[in-house]
Amino acid sequence: MNPWDPVPYSVTPSAQILARCVASGVLCQEDLDAVPRGTHVFSPHLLEADQVADMKRQIDEKNLEMELLKLEKESADVTHSFYLSRRFVTLQQFTSQLQGVLREQASLRQRLMKPLCQQNLPIVADLHRYVVELIGMAVDLIENLESKVKITRSFTSLGPSMTSLNNALAQILTLVTEVEEVSRQVQQWKDLQHRMVTNNNDSSA
To answer: Which GO terms describe its biological process (predicted)?
Structure first.
């Protein structure tokens, strides 16, 4: 209801307050008449700003909805039952293959733990000499293999030694540079002394 519209047989509270202000001299009738009597009391710029803010809010809401839809679309491939079932089948196949590999490894380990031949394997007498030589060669091979393994394992402990060697080499190079500088200075001093002696001999002659 517009407070400025006259209501027959009734006086609104705002009209009473304005009447008291006019009677006391706080307001005058000209100021009241200058007030617009339309419902749009606010400035049109404020209304436009309010509309712009409302439109921005709606745009932000739509952008948020679009982002949610994009996220849902991207995650649909992961959470969809079709893709999940395919991945589950692939995982089952991989698990079965892994179980087969483990079973083969267990059987292979058992086969390796068993001797390849019986202890009482008969050998022809003519081949005994070759068997003895073969056993000696196998022993030598095992010893060489153990030494190679020890050398290979010692490679991991060569890091600090190489660092110390590099530091010593750097110190030696520094000392060589200093010795070369001292030698150059000594040579210059010798040349200077030789020239001085030569000049003294020439002057005395």
So the answer is: centrosome cycle; microtubule nucleation; spindle assembly
What is the share, in percent, of the chain residues with pLDDT greater than 70? 68
Unique residue bearing structure tokens 């040349």: 191
**Residue position matching structure tokens 């009738």:** 29
Which tokens hold the place of 167? Answer: 């530091």
Contact 28, 19 (CB under 8 A): no
For residue 79 the two structure tokens come to 């959470």
Q: Which single residue is written with the structure tokens 């030598």?
A: 140
How many Cα atoms within 13 Å fall on the side-chain side of residue 111?
A: 6
pLDDT reading at 170 higher than 60: yes
Q: How far apart are CA 201 and CA 193, in angstroms?
A: 12
pTM of the model: 0.25
DSSP type of residue 29: H
Q: Which residues neighbour 2 within 8 Å (Cβ) at sequence distance 6 or greater?
A: 37, 39
